Write the structure tokens for this entry.
Amino acid sequence: MQPATPPTVSPFLRTAAAYAWRLLAVGLLVYSLFAVLGRFHEVGVALFLGLVITALLRPVADLVARHLPRSLAVALTLLVSIALVIGVLVLVGEAVAGEQTTLVREFREGVGRIERWLERPPFRLDPDALSGVQSKIGDYLSSHRAALLSTALSGAGHVVTVLATLALGLFSAVFFIHSGDRHWSWFQEQLPSAVRDRVALGGRAAWSTFTGYTHGIVLVAATNAVLVGIALWALGVPLAVPLALLEFLAAFIPLIGSPIALAIAAVVALASKGPLVAGIVVALIVIIGQIEGHLLHPLVMSWAVRLHPLVVAVSVVAGSIAAGVVGAVVAVPLVSVVWSVHTALRDARG
């Protein structure tokens, strides 16, 4: 009796299965990283902030260290950077305080203009419904005063958490900038000798990608902020400087951050200057989106790792689901770093 011939598996199916389990492993790793980031939210944010500060300021500190002792160069670089950040925040605060009276008057007039605009064709909304909106808002605030006060008090606790996170991030950056290479060398020495070369290669690829992405995204954010600030100032929209700063921060979330910030600017323009100026701001959203998508982001990805826009979009959404705003900010650089390490190790295997 002939033994039964074992069923054969097609090469395509074997290849698909091999890629499938690898994709599952990578997906599990990425999910675990985001889960840990969500669990240790503040620590993850602080370390990520420390790495960002290091990527930005390490070249400056190295340049200053050619003329000064290393410790003094690091301290001087950090102090000057902190002074610049505080100066920008003071400028924003003075801009808001200086426009407060004018802003309140323009918003009141703007609300009236919007109501009259909505009463005319093609909307033809009921004037009684519009006139009752402000009173309803006032009644809501009065009836929920205790809840709003409790929310404000809980927000004070969040401020303490934010300050502690910033302090930890700055503290981490001091050591990363001063002697991060020595720390990395010590870490490699603790590993088995068989994997040290691969870890060293992956580490170099990861840091090169992260620094390239960080420099690029800061360039994108600064360019967007300057363009938005100049445009809003030219249009006479109040709070141009704070809105430009909001655009700078929002640009760190690819694809969706900048449109959200510009949408807020459009609402401010609508309330203060009317529909025409708001329409111009909306057109600005489209123009800056085209500049960012077709010029700036390709430049950023050429400095880091070129990712398909679909990968960027999926990464941002997945990161926001897993860890909120922090996940949305961290997602793209994390995927870029993982892919660059994979590429470097694959090329090394030849």
Remarks:
- The mean pLDDT is 77.
